[in-house]
Structures are given as C-alpha cells and as structure tokens.
Amino acid sequence: MPFTDIEIQELETLFVAGGDDAQAVADYRRRFPGRTLTRCEESDMGPEEPFRQLAALNLYLVDGRNHCWRITRDPGSATGVVLARLGSPA
C-alpha cells in the first residue's frame, strides 16, 4: 500500500520528534501496519539519495512490490521505509 501525502507528513513528524528510538519505531508499527521498517547506519546506504534528511537520520522510501526491494523517491510506490542513522551509534 503506497504512502499518501498525509502519511509522509506523519512519518516526518514521528521521526523528527523521536529519531529511531524504540517508541518511535513502535508508533510507526502501530500507525502503519503491514509496512516495513528497516534501520541501519547512513554508511550502509551507499550512493542512494534520501527521500528526506532529518536531524538525526535520513529517511528512505522502499518499494517492495516485486521480489527485490529498491529505494524509491516516489511515495506512491513506497511500501516501507529505511531509517539511516547519521553519525556513530551511541
């Protein structure tokens, strides 16, 4: 199920406020059931361009409609998100 413009705004609000902490992840799973969420370090994303750059992380959209995932900048084809933490892990 693709993300709507309103849901994209909700994502930004959720992760700007909470980063990728346990509460923000739990809120995501509650608000967006059935959509994937993957966390990693920004260095794992290679040359991919983030959909949004937030204070503590970059937000990528994932299109998982086919067998293999791909990063997309199109919310209409996104089925999940990748949260790529900036800087060193705490």
Structural class: alpha+beta
Query: How would you sum up the major sheet?
Result: 5 strands, mixed
Taking all Cα atoms into account, the compactness measure Rg is: 12 Å
Shape: globular
Order of helical and strand elements:
HHEEEEE
Low-confidence stretches: none
Mean pLDDT: 89
What is the end-to-end distance? 33 Å
Give the % helix.
25-40%
Strand content: 25-35%
Number of helices: 2
How many beta-strand runs? 5
Task: Tell me the count of domains.
Answer: 1
Report on the structure:
It is globular, with a radius of gyration of 12 Å. Helix 1 (5-18) runs antiparallel to helix 2. The N and C termini lie far apart (33 Å). Strand 3 and strand 4 form a beta hairpin. The protein is α+β, with helices and mostly antiparallel strands and 90 residues long. Strands 1, 2, 3, 4 and 5 form a 5-stranded mixed sheet that branches. The model has no long low-confidence stretch (mean pLDDT 89). The longest helix is centred in the N-terminal third of the chain and has 14 residues, at 5-18. It has one domain (5-85). The chain has 2 helices and 5 strands, in the order ααβββββ.
Keywords:
alpha+beta
Compact overview of the structure:
With 90 residues, this protein is of the alpha+beta class.
